[in-house]
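Exercise: predict the fold of this chain.
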Amino acid sequence: MNISVENQAKNARAFSLLLPRSFQTRTGLFVLISTAVAGLLISQNSSNAAATWVIANLFGFALQRSRFCFASAFRDLFLFGSGHNMKGIIVGIGVSTIGFAAIMSWIVPNANSGTLPSEAHILPVGISVIVGGVLFGIGMVVAGGCVSGSLYRMAEGYVASWITIGGVILGLAALTMTWNWWWDFTVSTEPKIWLPSSVNLGYTGAIAVTLIGLILLYLLVIYRENMAGIFNPHINTKALPVQDFQTRVRSTIDPVFKRGWNVAVGGATLGLLGIVLYTIHKPLGVTGELMRASQLGLRWAGVDIPVLNGLSTLGGCTGILDETGLITHTFAITVGLLPGALIGALFAGEFRLRLPKNWKRYVQSLGGGLLMGYAAGLAIGCTVGAFFSAIPSLSLSGWIFGIALAIGAFTGTQVIKRIS
């Protein structure tokens, strides 16, 4: 009888030790519950938007836990020869490619039918994507983060990232006012090149070409690391003996919520989330809602917004102010990212208000954001929509944007060297 009472007391103590003791963890639980309630409220209006909201929460959480950022991937490769983050991006694109191909083959069984799969990020190929990619690459390196990276860092307390996103919105507003010039000059005549049909590869050939391209790119990254003398040591961790209930539970929770994820795990997770999101509505992309915000700002400022010729026919990460309702797909995916990233930061104890120490960082954040916003509007997406979701859509535009992005990022590294 005494043994039974003693065991109950031990279990009670174990459960009490598992309760969150830090302020950040308790706040994280509050944000988690609030986010779930918000999802339930959204489901009253649209089950599709609610599902998108949940995926966006997971998207933000995965970004934060894996420190997944396109800007650092390109910058570190050029500045230091480190391909750690770039490898994660390649893994994520590879995962998405398989899933996207399956979805697109269900939507359009015959790739040569002359029909493009709905909502896939098959974007125009031409001057617009090249200029957009170069400008975006420069902007993200100068700002110190891409759009998705800046969004999750906003949730971590980085003031510079808030300024960057403000710059992105201003850049998108500038693109809105000049879009029709670009449409008449080049976009209206640019073709959409879908590898399964335009190059007559079929699904099998297009998947093979894409995966081979990704493998070659992965090998190129390894070669760059080798030339730079980058050494990635394998660290053997000694397993701790599991003795009690508390240790068992914490050993399960900590790798997810407390420790940083391997970037390849983060990339694969984002790739899987992109597949799930495409089955619900459309692939990942975060600039559509920012474009709507920029147009709303223009309207509030009394600026007459012109009819944006052809924009609604292009797909990708477009955001039209006249879309009905507040809780749209673009709202759910972009805004939903923030609480997910905040939950990740709070559970890991990584949330802190961080102010730039040098005034130059404010200028870099705003200027880089302006470039990214204008470029993302022109290319119909940022590194997520026009690159991470476009290559798996088997669109040639994704590869062209990626090459232009690399050129811009290299240029951006030269700029920050001079600033430093």
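Check your answer against the key: Confidence is low (pLDDT under 50) at residues 12-19.
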